[in-house]
Write a structure and sequence with these properties.
This is [FeFe] hydrogenase maturase subunit HydE. It is an enzyme of class 1 (oxidoreductase). Its cofactor is [2Fe-2S] cluster; [4Fe-4S] cluster. It comes from Clostridium scindens (strain ATCC 35704 / DSM 5676 / VPI 13733 / 19). The protein is α/β, with parallel strands linked by helices. Helices cover about 45% and strands about 10% of the residues. The strands form 3 sheets. It has a 6-stranded parallel beta sheet with strand order 2-3-4-5-6-8, covered by helices on one side. It is globular and about 55 Å long. The chain starts with a helix and ends in a 9-residue tail after the last strand. The structure holds S-adenosylmethionine (SAM) and FE2/S2 (inorganic) cluster. S-adenosylmethionine binds next to loops.
Length: about 350
């Protein structure tokens, strides 16, 4: 512990480490070191965001996907998925329900669905923007052309979530079909930032073949991109994918990475993800205690929840939006935090 504590202190003062230092810290982590890290991470978080927890209403509006990521349950070559897409009216209904429950950010997430063309997305975004001028509209619909991103932005979208998944090109190629590349994914992120989106990136923890060096490179990339939000969660196998027999990412490493991210980018928005809540009943609470400050309850209609199965045993697939929201409120209160009704813009500019 003594040996590596200096790296955490260095991270706190300089907000960065070298590739070798990141690797050494990740490899040499211990429960004592993690405890020390979380304490510092919480201090940073309280300094900038107090004990507030922002909520995002997640609307999983389509599970059609043209991609074939090897880890993902809704990949196109999984024939067992019952495919659905919500209509524009249905999505607007979800937003209205969400608004009444106190959500001021809607996250429209989906597979890369050809039905939702640029024109259809623009129309949808404009309608949400018109009905909810005080809300943030976040998109998470994968890789698009710069022109598409620009059009969505002009229609009223403010934020975009696109995890880089893993920075290392070789590792990336082992998780994706040859048609997808780390470079193309990263270019999208630079485009999004350049257009003016509040941009979120992130990675899976414990994805197959991932090494500590890969995680070190993820940290270096995130430091360079300097996004407004970073979403990380454990890899969880899905039974109908090529990775069905791979090991689950651990709670312990995910929490450690959350703490490191908070120290590296003190003002970043950091969700405590559903995947974290899936691998441990107290996962989301522990994520907050490691430095996270956002939760994303599900606003999708209950009828389709189970069909948006990216991984096995996903939680909250049977709960109404209001139940999810209340459940999270209670969970946050139990650890001394409070869910707030606010847009919750990032302070990391
Ligand atoms: N299509 C959009 C995209 O590519 O960004 C958004 C939907 S995609 C399913 C959302 C995220 O789910 C991915 O970025 C990935 O990190 C995560 N994910 C997919 N399969 C997963 C798995 N088996 N375990 C954990 N996370 C997974
Ligand atoms: Fe969905 Fe707890 S957050 S039921």
């Amino acid at each position: 512990m003594k040996d590596l504590k200096y790296l955490i202190d260095k991270l706190k003062t300089q907000r960065s480490l070298t590739r070798d230092e990141w690797t050494a810290l990740i490899v040499g982590r211990t429960p004592e070191l993690a405890g020390y890290l979380f304490e510092l991470a919480r201090k940073e978080r309280h300094l900038h965001y107090g004990h507030d927890v922002y909520v995002r209403g997640l609307i999983e509006f389509t599970n059609y996907c043209r991609n074939d990521c090897l880890y993902c349950g809704i990949r196109k070559s999984n024939p067992h998925v019952s495919r659905y897409r919500l209509s524009e009216e249905h999505i607007l209904d979800c937003c209205r329900i969400g608004y009444d429950l106190g959500f001021r950010t809607f996250v429209l997430q989906g597979g890369e669905d050809g039905y939702y063309t640029r024109e259809r997305m623009v129309h949808l975004i404009e309608r949400i923007r018109f009905r909810h001028p005080d809300c943030a509209i976040t998109l998470s619909i994968g890789e698009k052309s710069r022109e598409d991103y620009q059009a969505f932005y002009e229609a009223g979208a403010n934020r975009y979530l696109l995890r880089h998944e893993t920075f290392n090109a070789n590792h990336y190629s082992r998780l994706h079909p040859p048609s997808l590349s780390a470079a193309a994914r990263q270019k999208c992120l630079w485009d999004l930032k350049d257009i003016g989106y509040q941009t979120g990136t992130g990675f899976m923890v414990g994805s197959p073949y991932q090494t500590p060096q890969d995680l070190a490179e993820d940290m270096l990339f995130i430091r360079e991109l300097n996004p407004q939000m970073v979403g990380i969660g454990p890899f969880i196998p899905h039974h109908d994918t090529p990775f069905s027999n791979e090991a689950v990412g651990t709670l312990e490493l995910t929490l450690f990475m959350l703490g490191l991210l908070r120290l590296m980018l003190p003002k970043v928005l950091l969700p405590s993800t559903t995947a974290l809540g899936t691998i441990d009943p107290k996962g989301r609470e522990l994520g907050i205690l490691a430095g996270a400050n956002v939760v994303m309850p599900n606003l999708s209609p209950t009828g389709v929840r189970k069909d948006y199965a990216l991984y096995d045993n996903k939680i909250c697939t049977g709960d109404e939006a209001a139940e999810c929201r209340q459940c999270l409120e209670r969970r946050m209160e139990s650890i001394g935090y409070r869910v707030v009704t606010a847009r919750g813009d990032s302070l990391n500019l």
